[in-house]
Structures are given as C-alpha cells and as structure tokens.
Automatic annotation (TrEMBL):
GO biological process: lipid biosynthetic process
InterPro entries xref list: AB_hydrolase_fold, TEII, TesA-like, Thioesterase
Sequence similarity: Belongs to the thioesterase family.
Oxidoreductase as UniProt keyword: no
Sequence ranges assigned to domain Thioesterase TesA-like in this UniProt record: 22-209
UniProt name for this protein: Surfactin synthase thioesterase subunit
Record PANTHER family: S-ACYL FATTY ACID SYNTHASE THIOESTERASE, MEDIUM CHAIN (PTHR11487:SF0), THIOESTERASE (PTHR11487)
Length: 252
C-alpha cells in the first residue's frame, strides 16, 4: 500500500477531471463524511477524502494529536496527486489542517487553487478550550451538543470504545493548535460558517481574510456548527463554480 492509498480515499475516481478537491473532516470525523460530496461532484471534480490515522480502516494506527504533525505527515503523502489543480476544503479541525497543508504545499512550490475554510476561527483567533481534558462522558456530551455525529452511533458502547481514542486525539489537536508566524497564503480563501455556531463566531471566521494575499470571500449560512449538513446544495454549487473558473482559466 502506498502513502497515497493510506491517506486518501477516492470513492468515485475521476481521472479525467481537470481539478481535484482535497477534503479534510472535523474532529471525530473520517473520510466517509465526504462520500456524498464525492458522488455529487464526480466526474467533474476528483474528490480526495483524507483518512486520518486511528479510525475505520486505519483503526490500528496510532492517532496524531497535533495539527502540525498531521500536516507534516499528509503533505508528502499527497505529493503524487498534485499534478492537477487542487483546491482544499476543511471543516472545523479540517479547516485549520487545510490551512497548514496549504502553507506546506506553497512552500514546496505547489499553489492550491483555493482554501475553503468552514466552521473554524481564523488560525490566529484559535480559542483556549479544554474539552479534550474532560473524561469520556464529558467529551461525548460536548460532541453530541454540536450535533454532527449520529447520537445512536455514539450510544453504542462497542462503537464508542473504538472511536473514542480518535475523538480525543482530534480534540487535542484542534484545541492545542498554535499558529506559527509566516507568509500569507497566495491562494484565495473562501470562509464559510453558520450564524449560530458556538465554536466560531462570524467575526472569528471573517478574520481568515488576514491569511491570504489573494481573494477572500465570507459566506454565512443559517445554522450551528454543522450548518453545512443542511445547505449541501449551496456548498456544492460554490465548489463547482470555483472548479469551473479554474478550468476556464487553464491553458488548453
């Protein structure tokens, strides 16, 4: 198995697509969260859903508890896939990870076509949070309050025993992240959020504009932390519009 196979799930391979979309999930999430996105965007966009260690088919691997460590491991793994224009979409934890991936790609000479940062304060506005220090019951309650994971799934003791280490590692990574000073991104940033998100105010998300030298756009939708589950068509439309703009600007 190659590093690409280890980290990336291409649920609906689109080898003839002109653009690619790298998708990074929230804390406790997995590549399968983007299965529907992959199905909807294929064959126009080749969706690359990232599978973090310590869950699903990577259950036996140790979890990574730092966003910087995740980015350091992921970027070399996706290097073989950077031959086509690549946009990045990340939600919550995935937004900050996407930013760090974009920074590393740009340092290597690969400029993403855009970073879509969803449901997360700008990197320099990260909050001081300690949910990852709670016991299992407290951490589980915090997750359920956000509403992103099926409650019935988290009520299954056998499932919970398998996923809890990954959940705790992800929360640790998200809540202990420290922004490191450096150049702004060269690629556009499109920030998205819910207007009632307890994890990210509109002002905190709007501050993403400070991290790019290029275009910035803020989109605010009704809803909480997982607002995106209720506005999937709107988000897919934004992703398609961006991909088509990249395709039309590419030399034939």
């Amino acid at each position: 198995m190659t590093e690409v196979d280890l980290w990336v799930r291409r649920f609906h391979p689109a080898d003839d697509a002109e653009t690619q979309l790298l998708c990074l999930s929230h804390a406790g999430g997995s590549a399968s969260y983007f299965f529907g996105v992959s199905r909807a965007l294929a064959p126009e966009i080749d969706v690359l859903a990232v599978q973090y260690p310590g869950r699903q088919d990577r259950l036996r691997e140790p979890c990574l508890r730092s966003i910087h460590d995740l980015a350091d491991a992921l970027v070399p793994a996706i290097a073989p896939l950077t031959g086509r224009p690549l946009a990045i979409f990340g939600h919550s934890l995935g937004a900050t990870l996407g930013y760090e991936v974009a920074r590393r790609l740009e340092q290597s000479g690969v400029i993403p076509t855009a970073l879509f940062a969803s449901g997360r304060p700008a990197p320099h506005r990260s909050r001081l949070e300690r949910t990852h220090l709670r016991d299992d019951a407290g951490l589980l309650a915090a997750m359920k309050q956000l509403g992103g994971t099926e409650a019935a799934l988290l009520d299954d003791e056998d499932v919970l025993a398998m996923v809890m280490p990954a959940i705790r590692a992800d929360y640790t990574a998200a809540e202990t992240y420290t922004h490191r000073a450096g150049p702004k991104l060269s690629c556009p940033i499109f920030a998205l959020t819910g207007d009632d998100d307890p994890k990210a105010t509109v002002a905190e998300v709007e501050a993403w504009r400070e991290h790019t030298e290029a275009e910035f756009e803020l989109s605010v939708f009704p809803g909480g932390h997982f607002y995106l589950n209720n506005v999937v068509p709107d988000i897919l439309a934004k992703l398609r519009t961006h991909a088509r703009s990249v395709s039309s600007a590419s030399p034939r």
